[in-house]
Amino acid sequence: MGHKKFPKRLVLFLMFFIFIIFLSFFVTYNSTVNKPIKSKEKEITIKVDKGQGFYDVINILDKENILRNKFMIKVNLSINGRSIQLREGSYKINTDLSLNELIEALEGKSLNENLISLTIPEGYTIEDIGKVIEEKNIASKEEFIKAVENYELPWFIEKNKNKRYDLEGYLYPDTYFIEKDTDLNDIIKMMVERFEEVLTQIQEESEVNFDNSKINDITTIGSMIEKEAQVDKDRPLISSVIYNRLEKDMKLQIDATILYAMNEHVDVVLYKHLETDSPYNTYKYKGLPVGPICNPGKESLKAALMPDKTDYLYYILQKDKSHYFTNEYNDFLNKKKELGY
C-alpha cells in the first residue's frame, strides 16, 4: 500500500504558516529586546526592593501593563543565562532603553555620567536631605527646601501652619537613581510615591487596616521610633511605650522631639532645653507632636502600626545600644543611676 501524498498546495500553506509564525516571533522578540518598556511617558520610576530579583521586577511591571512582552524577555534571559544582581533603590528610567540597558540601570551601573545615586538614610529630616541634594550638586539646600514648601501636598497630608514642613516624614529614605538635570519636584514626587508604596506594603504584610486620617499619627510615631531606636528589636517596644503613655494621658517626654523643636543638635538634652516652646516638644505638651520629626524607614513605620503588647512606660539607652524597658519609675531611676546618667 503506498503512502498518501499531501497536496502540494497544503504543504506550501503549512510552510508559509510556519514561516509567518517564526517571522512574528522574531519581530516580537527583537522589538521587545530593543525596547522592553511600553509607555507614553518619556520616563517612569521603577522600584527595586531588598531581596528582589529581575524576574520579580518584570512580573510587577507586567501586572502594571508597562512591559511589551514578558515572555520574550524571559526567552532572552534564558538564552543569555546572565547573572543579574539588582541594586535596591528607586530608578528614574528612560522608556527608550533596551533590555540590556534596563538591566544595567537596575544593577546600579551608570548608563552615562549624568546618572546620580542619591541615598537618603533613615531618620533624615528635610533639612538633612537638603544637604545631601546640595552635596550631590543637584541644587542648593535652600532651593530644595523652597521646592518642598511649594510642593502640592498629596491627598493624605493636611496643611498645618504649626508644622515646620508639611512634607516632613513623607520623603521616604531610600536610594534614588536620577539624572543630573531632574527637576526638584520630580525628586520629591519619587520620594512621596515611595512612601505611599511602602505604607501599602506594610498594610498588606501586617494585614492591619487603618483609617487614612491616622496616617499622620502613624508616621509621627514612626519618626520618633526612628530617632530613638538603635537596634531593630527595640522598635516595637519603644512603640508600645508611646502607646501606653498616650493611653494613660502621660507626656511622652521623648528627647528627639526636643532636638527637632530646637532645630539644632546638642549632645546632652538639659533641663533648660525642656522648656523650648514648640508644638513638637513632648516634654511641654501632652499627646503626639504636631507632626513627624524625621523621615522614618519601613521597620519604624511597621513598629508604629504594630506595637508590642507590654505595660512598659519607661526606657533608657544601655551601653550596647539597646534599651532597658520597665513599667516602674523607681526601677527606671535606679537603672539611670547605674548607667551613669
TrEMBL record:
GO MF assignments: lytic endotransglycosylase activity
Annotated localization: Cell membrane
Membrane topology: Single-pass membrane protein
Any GO CC annotation of this UniProt entry: plasma membrane
Main localization (coarse): membrane
Example of a GO biological process term: peptidoglycan biosynthetic process
UniProt cross-references to Pfam families, sorted A to Z: YceG
Catalytic class of the enzyme: lyase
Keywords: Cell membrane, Cell wall biogenesis/degradation, Lyase, Membrane, Transmembrane, Transmembrane helix
Enzyme Commission code(s) on record: 4.2.2.29
Site annotation Important for catalytic activity: residues: E228
Catalyzed chemical reaction(s): a peptidoglycan chain = a peptidoglycan chain with N-acetyl-1,6-anhydromuramyl-[peptide] at the reducing end + a peptidoglycan chain with N-acetylglucosamine at the non-reducing end
Domain of life (superkingdom): Bacteria
InterPro entries noted in UniProt: MLTG-like
Residue stretches spanning the membrane: 12-29
Described function: Functions as a peptidoglycan terminase that cleaves nascent peptidoglycan strands endolytically to terminate their elongation.
Family (UniProt): Belongs to the transglycosylase MltG family.
Protein name: Endolytic murein transglycosylase
Organism from which the protein derives: Clostridium neonatale
